[in-house]
Design brief:
Length: 153
Amino acid sequence: MVEYSIVSAEEEHLEEVARNMRLADQNEIWASHRVTPEAAIDHLRVSRDTRAGLADGQPVCIFGIDRVSVLSMVGHPWLLGTEGLHRHGIAFLRRNKEYLDEAKEGFEFLYNYVDARNVASIAWLRWLGFEVKDAEPYGWLGMPFHRFQMETV
């Protein structure tokens, strides 16, 4: 039986996800922000409340919600995963929903963008209760991305 847990992300979790990031997430962060997995992880080192999803102690994803600005009640939810997320996805779907219910306190609105090619993440976002808008050009490449959003009050 696999043991699943969600913990505060530590340096080794971030590095493991950067080294083994799933291709869909690599493509998404490149198309949106022109960053490599390592550069994306560098940004997350200063992110508040970054969590790691572990399967038998091995990180399969990192995720969190960043405030748009210090005083803002608007947040950007995000998740980056490894290929292991495909094998353990259902278990983390359930835990992400619990995390989201807790984490959205203190926010009035959540939104971000997801690559239109990332169909697994789009399905996950809908399951979590986000409204997923039609795809429009986004990011430095102007590729199709869906804005996803949720009112939390």
